[in-house]
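Hey, resending since the last one bounced:
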Amino acid sequence: MTKSKIFLILFLILAISVAILMLISQPKDTPTAAQNIKALIGGPFSLIDHHGKNVTDQDFKGKYMLIYFGYTFCPDVCPTELQIMSDALDRLPETTLNEIFPIFITVDPDRDTIDVMTQYVQAFHPKMIGLTGSEEQVKTVKAAYRVYAAKEISKDNTIDKDAYLVSHTSYIYLIDRNGEYVTHFRSQTDPKVMAERLLAEIK
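The structure tokens again:
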């Protein structure tokens, strides 16, 4: 056997040994991508519901939360997504529906007062809960759920205090009985698909 072949065999043995060693030494508790997302989304919050009652995330423990962030002055995206959520809920058997709190959290607390939220959520689903609060309270819950929201600036670089639009994340989040992230639904999800996934997740 030539020296070059011996060298090649030794090199291959060394490479395989290093690979095996790295595999063995890799930490067993390295988080998966799904675990990372679960850790990043969700958390404690304190807000005011559309009846004027102070609520926290603890008030919803023991049930699932189906949460959408938006605002009542939204011209199209928000009502569309809330209608999709409502249609999905109407497809569920009563036993599953009873395990869910459908929640609409405003990203525009300046205009979305308790009275405004009361009128708005009634247009969608009888179980829907509208949550508002102070700027700081809403900022906290947006940060917990990694939600982006910002008032749009007009062409003259100003913000119309009454007619401004708000750019925002448009996902519907499913949170489990312990307040932990389960999954989310992207904009324009088919209500039938959403209902099927809710049935599969909620036991």
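The chain has one domain: 44-201.

Sorry for the duplicate.
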